[in-house]
Amino acid sequence: VNFISHATQSRLRTVLEKVSSIAQHRMDSCKEDEWHEPSSDVRSQLKFFEQLERMEKQRKDEREREILLRAAKSRSRQEDPEQARLKQKAKEMQQQELAQMRQREANLTALAAIGPRKKRKVDSPGATTTGTEAGLQANSALYNRQRITRVNLRDFIFYMEQERETSRSLLLYRALLK
């Protein structure tokens, strides 16, 4: 029983170490590496396209707004239903813009009344510490907390694909189906 217990413990330890290193490699960012040269930055490309779409939408809204304002200002004698609809839409748009401006002003006023947001500093230079607090801080500096590595199913699947014993196991195929 002792041998089986020791073998199981040893096997679990090696599996957890390997899966933990896989998860750490997954979390590592290679952007700071001097040898890393990005071929394409998809995130910045997506941001650029989103910005283009916003600009196009803004231009379209401005054109529509100008058309509506022209229609609202025109004072033609014949009142056709299209002209009346445009005038009504222009009035609604102006009321909506006015409501948005009021809401924005109310929010700014409320934020000004609350005051600036201050972050509480834990180790500020002006803070005084008692003897026991200083001892606890020195004690915690000595014993560094171990980093918690979050391992997910993909990490286990990757590990099982790399290991000779589990690369064709039923457990791997079941995990791939999830």
From TrEMBL:
InterPro entries with a match to the protein in the record: Histone-fold, TAF4, TAF4_C
CDD domains given in the database record: HFD_TAF4
Basic and acidic residues: bias regions: 76-93
One GO term of the biological process aspect: transcription initiation at RNA polymerase II promoter
Chain segments annotated as transmembrane: none
Location in or out of the cell: Nucleus
Primary location recorded for the protein, binned into one broad class: nucleus
Annotated ranges, domain Transcription initiation factor TFIID component TAF4 C-terminal: 1-175
Cellular component aspect of the GO annotation: transcription factor TFIID complex
Segments for region (Disordered): 70-93
GO molecular function terms attached to this record: DNA binding; protein heterodimerization activity; RNA polymerase II general transcription initiation factor activity
Keyword match ATP-binding: no
Signal peptide residue numbers: none
Keywords: Nucleus, Transcription, Transcription regulation
Record family assignment: Belongs to the TAF4 family.
Protein name, entry field: Transcription initiation factor TFIID subunit 4-like
Species of provenance: Sinocyclocheilus grahami
